[in-house]
Structures are given as C-alpha cells and as structure tokens.
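Input.
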Amino acid sequence: MKVKLNLFERMRVVDFLPAKGGLEKATIAADIKKKLELSQEEIEKYEVKSEAMANGRIATRWNARGQEEVAFDFSKLEIQMLKDGLDEMNKKNEIPSEVAFLDLCKKVKDLEYKENDSKK
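Output.
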C-alpha cells in the first residue's frame, strides 16, 4: 500500500519498529528503514541539519520543504510490523502527545494492504 509521509513522519516512523528480534523481524525492520532513508539529494533539498543540544540530545532541523509528502509503498509484512509497533506503544502508554506524531499514528493505524497494491 502506498502512503504519503513528510520528513518528520519518515524520521519518526522508525519509533514503531522493534529494536531487535529474530532474523525475520530484523530483516523487515531494516527494509523499512532503508526505504525511508534520506538520500544526499534530499539532505541538500531539505537543508537537514543535526546539532547537539545542551541536554545531550540531538535536534534535527529542516526547511519548510520538509512538509512535502512523498509516497512510499509498504508490503503486507511491513504494514503489519508498523501496526504491531503502534499497538505495542499504545499498550505501554508510550505515544508522545505531539500533534505531528499523533497524525503519524493515525496514518499507520489506517494502513491496509490490498493484494492488488503490489501490482500498481
């Protein structure tokens, strides 16, 4: 299924992925990460910059073009992994209350795989 994601969503969708797992889960998670990875051209286009903050965390910033959505095609297994990750975060009450993340949660929740999606 194709889903449109902006830059914030691409960077945060990995929050739904398991940190570790068996070979199958690790492969699916790696495929999702690779699919959403920023290219050098996108880093330049969006003027992506990462900088250390006083609290030791890393802040990543980009220009307004980062709001542009790009379509990504997810397989049945990838969709299931994203939905399972969202369900797990929800059960543990670990979903951040920021509006942009909640919008991403709704996109993931609404994902549905249809057999003919892979043929488009």
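Residues 2-115 form one domain.
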